[in-house]
Specification:
Oligomer: single chain
CATH class: Mainly Alpha
Shape: globular
Distance between the termini: 39 Å
Structural class: mainly alpha
Order of helices and strands: HHHHHHHHHHHHHH
Radius of gyration: 23 Å
Strand content: under 5%
CATH superfamily: MetI-like
Largest sheet: none
Length: 276
């Protein structure tokens, strides 16, 4: 039986949303291949009249005062490390809330969830004081460890663990597996989709973070990419192609990561649901 075609308005809406979301990215990438004169022209152009790699040469070769590759490496290491720690801590806490019988568990879980409603800026000063006491200011640790114990990851994974059949864990216990063996060898492999989803969300949050690194990073070679890109803007002139080239470099790893793992993200969100 032939499936009925969707309403044309549906495809029109999809086309409009595609232009809205992808349009700025396309314009950003195309501007990075323009000359500075064309980019600042009163008559805007969509495609570059003369394609040039000047902005990328300026970014990676000429301007040694802006170590873009170093900033890119810092962002990659910080975002990856932070996302891995978020997945580790959140999975252990979520499994405890989903499976263990603890007195006052529901009250404690409600307290954890309540932190999601507190504005992030409230934690700036306490986190800064902690980083200072640990002597982690102006280091990678200052942008890796804060936020690794967020409430969202606990809530998200708890919903997934509740949906897992208990028979899997019971079979492992019958075979003599302890709680840690059951968790790391049975539960986590079955939560791959949810873990990858949380990994991507945490990676993006850390990668795009702008305000917190400004407070805790001081040296040029310790900056992350979003903060470092602000150094590309001069005091009196703005080289738009260079700035757009830097923004394109910052966007490419995220787009590639999501493109490769998008199937797991969709499966993870669909399987987590809102049970509980």
């Amino acid at each position: 039986m032939r499936k009925p075609s969707r309403n044309p308005l549906f495809w029109l809406l999809i086309a409009v949303l595609t232009v809205v979301f992808l349009g700025p990215l396309v314009v950003m990438a195309l501007t990075s291949f323009k000359s500075n004169i064309e980019a600042q022209s009163a008559t805007p152009t969509f495609l570059p009249q003369q394609w040039t790699l000047r902005a990328y040469r300026q970014l990676f070769v000429v301007d040694q005062a802006s170590p873009v590759l170093r900033w890119l490496l810092n962002s990659t290491v910080a975002a990856t490390s932070n996302a891995l720690l978020v997945c580790l801590f959140a999975s252990m806490a979520a499994y405890a809330f989903a499976r263990l019988r603890l007195p006052g568990k529901n009250v404690l879980f409600a307290l954890v969830l309540s932190t999601m409603f507190v504005p992030g800026f409230v934690f700036f000063m306490p986190n800064y004081e902690i980083m200072s006491k640990f002597q982690w200011l102006d280091s990678m640790a200052a942008i890796i460890f804060p936020g690794t114990a967020g409430a969202f990851g606990v809530f998200f994974l708890r919903q997934f663990f509740i949906s897992l059949p208990k028979e899997l864990e019971e079979s492992a216990r019958v075979d003599g597996a302890g709680p840690f063996t059951t968790f790391f060898r049975i539960v986590l492999p079955n939560a791959r989709g949810a873990l990858l989803t949380l990994f991507i969300l945490s990676f993006l949050a850390n990668w795009n973070d702008f305000v917190w690194p400004i407070y805790v990073l001081f040296s040029d070679d310790k900056l992350t990419l979003p903060v470092g890109l602000t150094r590309l803007q001069g005091s009196y002139t703005i080289d738009y192609p260079v700035i757009m080239a830097g923004a394109t470099v910052a966007a490419v790893p995220v787009l590639v990561l999501y493109t490769v793992l998008q199937r797991y993200v969709i499966d993870g969100v669909a399987s987590s649901g809102l049970k509980g």
